[in-house]
Amino acid sequence: MQLLQNILQHVQVLSTHGSLEVPVQGIVFDSRQVREGSLFVAVRGVQADGHAFMPKAEEAHAAAIVCEELPQELKPGMTYVQVKDSAEALGQMASAFYGHPSKKLQLVGVTGTNGKTTSVTLLHKLFRELGYHVGMISTVQNQIDEEVIPSTHTTPDAVKLNELLAQMVKAGCTHAFMEVSSHAMVQRRVAGITFAGGVFTNITHDHLDYHGSFEEYIKAKKSFFDMLPKNAFALVNADDKRGPIMVQNTKASAHFYALRKMVEFKGRLIDNTIQGLHLEVNGQEIWAKLIGAFNAYNLLGAYGVAVLLGEDPTESLTVLSSLSSAAGRFDYVVSDAQITGIVDYAHTPDALENVLQTIQQIRNPNQKVITLVGCGGNRDAAKRPVMADIACRLSDQVILTSDNPRFEEPQAILEDMQKGVKPLDFKKTLSVLDRKEAIKTAVMLAQPNDIILVAGKGHETYQEIKGVKYDFDDKQILSEMFRQLGK
Ligand SMILES: CC(=O)N[C@H]1[C@@H](OP(=O)(O)OP(=O)(O)OC[C@H]2O[C@@H](n3ccc(=O)[nH]c3=O)[C@H](O)[C@@H]2O)O[C@H](CO)[C@@H](O)[C@@H]1O[C@H](C)C(=O)N[C@@H](C)C(=O)N[C@H](CCC(=O)O)C(=O)O
Ligand SMILES: Nc1ncnc2c1ncn2[C@@H]1O[C@H](COP(=O)(O)OP(=O)(O)OP(=O)(O)O)[C@@H](O)[C@H]1O
Ligand SMILES: N[C@H](CCC[C@H](N)C(=O)O)C(=O)O
Ligand SMILES: [Mg+2]
């Protein structure tokens, strides 16, 4: 419990009506969750405008309402606070309500199109090995040391985020590593959060449906570095064309990592095999367990963070070299017939291209590559034909299928993908709408020693169709098909 006036400290308030000394039991931004004593914040969303639900919050006996526009009639006895930006205010108030937990941790945020989950997972494992109590907030799961807290978003909403950070502080964590998505930046989910550092992995095609254009998507990522404080670090992949833009206006100190440029954290890829990566990092050679050239970037970024947080470079590198990746990232099973099945969360053109390039680099010339891929519904439709084309270009056989159709027609998504298949590739491409049938088909087509890539869903254990999440686990189904078909 906190008094309203105490949590308004950093909020840009335009007007107040009623007492600010009301006790607040909790902060909510969904009228359906208002309980007696809740503070209801009216936020404008994509589907709806929270302001329309202020009467519901009044009926449910909210303690007070924070909004950008006051209702026409103010309810007697109720407190209203008019603010400039409700989403920003929500973040500031959530931080104050939970005692500013981000200030009590060394909190590092990772942003970029691909590599966020892998990076925070590596950092969490590294700092655990170095002996700290560590928190993690990621797409796959949130963690406090080894305790797993299920995750619903890549970056949780402001209230959930501060609640999680407060739990970490309470558990004695000194460090926390979190993913910062572009949606979170636009929706101000991290407003009021104090970061010790920020990392930029890369930016390529994704989420154009939400941001409208690539320029707007870049701006959303850059806004994270614009909000970092002066004493924080901004660690940027200098090989990405947009790396320098990210730190153009930051107050934080800029640092760079790269494989192709001479920078502070400099890596060199010596070899890339199914056993892992042979790398040189700032003059030291390591054999890392992670597979795929793109993981050289994730390792370098994690190394840079460790050094910038004051850890010993050699010890950090040694630990990093022993770490495995996050669930569903180049996760592979080898069947009895020596067919290699790879499950990977590649759901963007760049990720798919990188994973397939890696497979091309590590395979023997006699191993055929069969790629199974689908695209999510109610997400960027422009990437669909591009991903189908990449799959065809880098595979011997392609099976186009469904991912999470959400509220779209699976057949329509498939047809968007088919538009990317060039006439010369028609004969190597099959379309099997049912994802389980598609996996079965891939296994039936595979000969001993072949490679099957099942892309797009990685760690996900469900398939989301019309608002219902049905059990679905690519890796489990793949193993089941190997057994069922005697492969
Ligand atoms: C597009 C998007 O990001 N939507 C997020 C957004 O919902 P919204 O803007 O649609 O909300 P809305 O339905 O318009 O409602 C507006 C306001 O009215 C309120 N409301 C609504 C109904 C009601 O009866 N009463 C009420 O008070 C809502 O609580 C909300 O505050 O705010 C919600 C609360 O924080 C999020 O749960 C929701 O995430 C949806 C479920 C989602 O799928 N988001 C994805 C795209 C996302 O955020 N992904 C990124 C990762 C991307 C990546 O890394 O590749 C992530 O960080 O997870
Ligand atoms: N540094 C990287 N550069 C390019 N591709 C990568 C990189 N790291 C991972 N990938 C590819 O992208 C996929 C997603 O990786 P990861 O889950 O780490 O990214 P993410 O940024 O967390 O994604 P999301 O935005 O969906 O949460 C991986 O399965 C792999 O195919
Ligand atoms: N964080 C990503 C996940 C995409 C995963 C893919 N399986 C899909 O459903 O499109 C998003 O929300 O766009
Ligand atoms: Mg992620």
Provide a descriptive summary of the structure in words.
With 487 residues, the protein is α/β, with parallel strands linked by helices. It has 3 domains: 2-97, MurE/MurF, N-terminal domain (Udp-n-acetylmuramoylalanyl-d-glutamate--2,6- Diaminopimelate Ligase, Chain: A, domain 1), CATH 3.40.1390; 101-320, 3-Layer(aba) Sandwich (UDP-N-acetylmuramoyl-L-alanine:D-glutamate ligase); 331-484, Protein-Tyrosine Phosphatase, Chain A (Alpha-Beta Complex), CATH 3.90.190.20. Helix content is 32%, strand content 24%. The chain has 16 helices and 26 strands. The strands form 5 sheets. It has an 11-stranded mixed beta sheet, sandwiched between helices. Strands 19-20-24-21-22-23 form a 6-stranded mixed beta sheet, sandwiched between helices. A hairpin with a 2-residue loop joins β25 and β26. α12 (349-362) packs parallel to α13 (383-393) and α15 packs across α16 (474-484). Bound molecules: ligand UAG, adenosine-5'-triphosphate, 2,6-diaminopimelic acid and magnesium ion (MG). The site of magnesium ion has 6 residues, from α4.
The helix-and-strand class reads alpha/beta
> How many structurally independent domains?
3
Instruction: Tell me which ligands are bound.
Output: ligand UAG, adenosine-5'-triphosphate, 2,6-diaminopimelic acid, magnesium ion
Output the CATH class name of the largest domain.
Alpha Beta
Our estimate of the beta-strand percent is 15-25%
The averaged pLDDT comes out at 96
Looking at CATH, the homologous superfamily of the largest domain is Mur-like, catalytic domain
CATH architecture of the largest domain, by name, is 3-Layer(aba) Sandwich
Give the overall shape.
globular
Number of strand elements: 26
